[in-house]
Design brief:
single chain, 428 residues, eight-stranded antiparallel sheet, 20 strands, 2-enoyl-CoA Hydratase, Chain A, domain 1, 2 domains, Pdz3 Domain, six-stranded antiparallel sheet, alpha+beta
Length: 428
């Protein structure tokens, strides 16, 4: 967060899961002022869009007329102002320019901070039961240590039923100060269990790694990157350095279902794989282009395959596009989401937030992938049954039981063979 603003490659769309943890981001004093008048809050939002929005025509909307319409109204309280702001922004027909109420803004800060407090679980609404479903516990957290497992149903929080509860409300009830307790009532099969969990400070690790040895004795480094948060660059650097010391022969970088995050993190990570070349360019409404380039500090030049899918968006697409256009990696999987827009996120009023589309980005070859996405070099699709099998058992992701991983591994072995680097025999 710089000068009260957080520049994102931003998430692709509304996330279906929320990490149940909590922390704030420090804003400068100048950004933490309070506007008591609801009308002033409406006008503040209008002014920011007016000054920063990527399209000077505001997507063919008479933005001055919009201001007059909404400032001529009377607002009794903040809730009326919130509703009016959402209506005003809808005129732009841009899903990424959005107003965030205090709780939503707090959640965004939490998702990108990498330093959190809570119990350490990811949750989602379960459409079938209308309860809250545990997607997965984060390893080495209170929830994980207590025995919460993937697919558990949370049917009550501190005795309050979660039937029909909104996700944000569930998150608010589960989060809290370190050292305090929360009781989660879990339904697992036909069994109901109360878990008394003590909240703690948690560090979210976006990078997961595994050393994969092929049947021919080749060792490959598998790196799964779940999001581009504040910890992503350092953890990626550590992962590559670790595998380099193990003398792996190639890498698989898994960006599937990675919705994006911090733009700078994607640039920093791209530089770890590329020694030279353009990485990404951004164009604002004045037509000014900010070009990011490699800086000669790549950590490895070994063969690389990158896994993507329809959930790979924004910062993921920046990274995949940079690697693809520079012929650094073979992209394997399915078409990516197609979010080629960059948002600036800032605080408005006392506690609310505003994400504004301020620029579009282009791949090194000048491709505008918004609404188009990145087309993999090798298309590898999974059936619905295969996808559900991986959802049921996440331990299979990045193994030979993962069809797309197997395809990437085959590509990688072929690439290594073409480079004339035969596998060295190793002890089995």
């Amino acid at each position: 967060m710089t000068k009260g603003r957080l520049v994102l490659g931003a998430t692709a769309a509304m996330l279906t899961t929320v990490a149940v943890t909590g922390a704030g981001v420090h804003l400068s004093q100048s950004q933490a002022f309070f506007r008591e008048s609801p009308k002033e809050l409406v006008d503040e939002v209008w002014q920011i869009v007016n000054q920063q929005y990527v399209d000077a025509t505001f997507n063919q909307v008479d933005w001055q007329a919009v201001r007059q319409e909404y400032l001529n109204r009377s607002y009794e309280d903040k809730q009326e102002a919130y509703k009016a702001i959402n209506e005003m922004l809808e005129e732009l027909d841009d899903p990424y320019t959005r107003f965030m109420k205090p709780e939503e803004f707090k959640n965004l800060q939490i998702d990108t901070s990498g330093e959190l407090t809570g119990v350490g679980i990811q949750i989602a609404l379960d459409e079938e039961t209308d309860y809250i479903r545990v997607i997965s516990p984060i390893e080495e957290t209170p929830a994980y240590e207590a025995g919460i497992i993937a697919k558990d149903l949370i049917i009550a929080i501190n005795g309050k039923s979660t039937k029909g509860m909104e996700l944000n409300e569930a998150v608010s009830l589960i989060r809290g100060k370190p050292g305090t307790e929360v009781t989660l009532t879990i339904k697992r099969g036909e069994e109901k269990i109360d878990y008394d969990i003590t909240r703690a400070r948690i560090e979210v690790h976006p990078v997961k790694t595994r050393l994969h040895e092929t049947s021919q004795g080749q060792e490959m480094g598998y790196i799964r990157l779940n999001q581009f948060n504040a910890n992503a660059s350092e953890e990626m650097r550590n992962a590559i350095n670790k595998f380099e010391k193990q003398d792996v022969e190639g890498y698989i970088l898994d960006l599937r279902s990675n919705p994006g995050g911090l733009l700078q993190a994607s640039v920093q990570i791209a530089r770890m794989w590329l020694d030279e070349g353009k990485l990404v360019s951004t164009v604002n409404r004045q037509g000014e282009t900010d070009v990011k380039r490699a800086n000669g500090n790549a950590l490895t030049d070994k063969p690389l395959a990158v896994l993507v899918d329809g959930g790979s968006a924004s910062a993921s697409e920046i990274l995949a596009g940079a690697l693809q256009d520079n012929n650094r990696a073979v992209i394997v999987g399915t078409q990516t989401f197609g979010k080629g827009l960059v948002q600036s996120v800032r605080r408005v009023g006392a506690e609310s937030g505003l994400a504004v589309t301020v620029a579009k980005y282009l791949t090194p070859d000048g491709r505008d992938i918004n609404k188009e996405g990145i087309t993999p070099n090798i298309i590898s699709e999974m059936s619905e049954e295969q996808q559900k099998a991986l959802q049921r058992d996440r331990a299979k992701i990045g193994t030979l039981q993962d069809p797309q991983f197997s395809e990437a591994l085959s590509v990688l072995k072929s690439k290594i063979a073409k480079q004339g680097k035969p596998a060295q025999a190793r002890q089995q």
